[in-house]
Amino acid sequence: MSFVKKSKAIVRYTSFISYI
């Protein structure tokens, strides 16, 4: 469960960087 949450956070962070 924690792994999934962490993975989702990484994807969101990556998307944020990609947006910039």
Tally of DSSP β-strands: 0
In the predicted model, the low-confidence regions spanning at least 5 consecutive residues are: none
Query: How many helices in DSSP terms?
Result: 1
Query: What structural class do the secondary elements suggest?
Result: mainly alpha
**What gap, in angstroms, lies between the N and C termini?**
29 Å
What is the strand content?
under 5%
Rg on CA atoms, Å: 9 Å
Mean pLDDT rating: 87
Largest sheet, in brief, is: none
Following the backbone from N to C, one meets helices and strands in this order, namely H
- Please bin the fraction of helical residues: over 70%
- Which of globular, elongated, flat, extended, rod-shaped describes the shape? rod-shaped
What does the model show?
- The chain has 20 residues and is mainly alpha-helical.
- It is built from one helix and no strands.
- The protein has one helix spanning 2-19.
- The protein is rod-shaped.
